[in-house]
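Treating backbone geometry as a discrete language has practical consequences that deserve illustration. The sequence in question and its structure tokens are set out directly beneath this paragraph.
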Amino acid sequence: MSDNLKNVKCNGIFYFFIFIIAGCESSDNTDSPMGADIVIENGVIYTVNKDQPWAQAIAIKDGEITFVGSDNEVKEHVGNNTKIVNVDNRLIIPGMQDVHIHPISGGILSAACDLNGLSNIAEYRVAISDYANSNPDLDWITGGGWAMSVFGAGGKPSRKIIDELVSDRPVYLTSTDGHSGWANSLALEMAGITEDTPDPIDGIIDRDPETGELIGSLQEGAMTLMEKIIPPDSFESKLAGLRYSIKMLNGYGITAIQDAIVREPDLKTYQHLEENNELTLRVVASQWWERSEGLEQIDYFNQMRDKYTSRLINPSTVKIMQDGLVENYTAVLVDHYHNVPGPTKGIPMVEPEFLKEVVTAIDAAGFQVHFHALGDGAARQSLDAVEEAIYENGQLGNRHHISHLQLVHPDDFSRFAELEVVANFQPLWAYSGDYLTELAAPFVGQERLRWSYAIKTLEDAGAKIAFGSDWSVTSANPFHQIETSITRQSATEVTALENKPVDPEQDVPLFIEESISLEAAIKAFTLNAAFVNKIESRTGSLEVGKLADLVILDQNLFEIEPYDISETNALITLFDGEVVHGGWAEL
């Protein structure tokens, strides 16, 4: 064989191997499972993963996180079809989760006679009149959002105010907290409510203390006397309300929620949007415990769970409202209220001994219990019920949680950790506004007042802390809530509950020793909230193998003053790796 032939043969073999290697490299970039759909680089990523709290880059494939680490290392996950996004050192955190919210009713309210954001009776008059005049074909005028503080202690708005504006149609408006109703005379007449109507066991029909005349306001369980005759919201209005809320929540960087009250029409609403690929939230649905019924409800809860459980919907929680509000003296206290006519400790909505039986049965059926408890007495009754359930059933890991917790008795702080009950706070309420200083302080006393929204004390006692907004009671914006949890002051120029301008002289921190860290506040809205929703193995932190639910922010929360946190905006929200708010072009 000639030397030339040998050279040709050798060169052919050499180029054959080069071709094979090049082909393999090309295949890796195009078809390899290592090639991500999206690579986000040059970020400041706060993962909420204690083993790797910070990172620069993240890779996403098929809606899941496949890499979290440095910009240099993420290059291995770049294929020919990978979209590479440079976020220019912006902060990225996990998608947030609101574990106490009312998205359907809140969305419906936005299109009804909405008094939220108004601060006095004159503004209410204008809004009610304008809405009635703009909707002449409506048989009922409904809505809400009025602040109890506008009407003073007890929050008792007069029917005569509405009568002057609308007398030919029934009007019924709920308070911003949802615990009181305001009706005109025609609505009261249609509901059959008279001066002789007895108070229900779980509520109060407000009357003039001297004449016995109906005032026009209904507290707690008395609201059902009115609500049972009001035409129910249509399926179309529920759909519209939920679509409104989803857009708003995704816009805040929220990707999962716990709806605090659902009945079957609400579950149908969620199901419809999921089936039409419109549901961009993971939803835990709290089925409502009807106080007028008994343990037979659990069979119904099971039916609803079997019928509506899906990839995004989980109706495995039961909501029990154990008390009302401190402001109308229906929150249950361990000791009596001060300066209130007649001795009272509030109204237990479920008799405490029966509550133990109820919670034990719900727990045994595999449901989580979502308690409403404002007063320290209601919190204790809820803890007692969980303790009884554990005694009877053992610790089943159902992750029961108590929401609101305006007051907790010091003797009960340690019990949250001992019983593995999550403390579910609405942190936007933890400031010195009229609701606290004028409607609560005189009636609970300074000693009890000290334990208002004792977030840090419970955290130090080992309790797991999670956050929810209770929207539409107050803003669903998590950045407002995070700021208040740190500063213990109003997060905006208008107070959250009173809808009135903040008075700088009165805006002092509410027991600043209850302030928590930024890290703790973020965790309460992410990993701890995911724990409550039982999806922490798949969401709540940015880790390999978890779902790509995340939010890119316009400012770094760790580099700004706490008082600027409320100005933060979500630029882009990803849900299952897909953009559901904002767009890459905005970076």
Q: What stands out?
A: The radius of gyration is 27 Å. The first helix runs from residue 3 to 31.
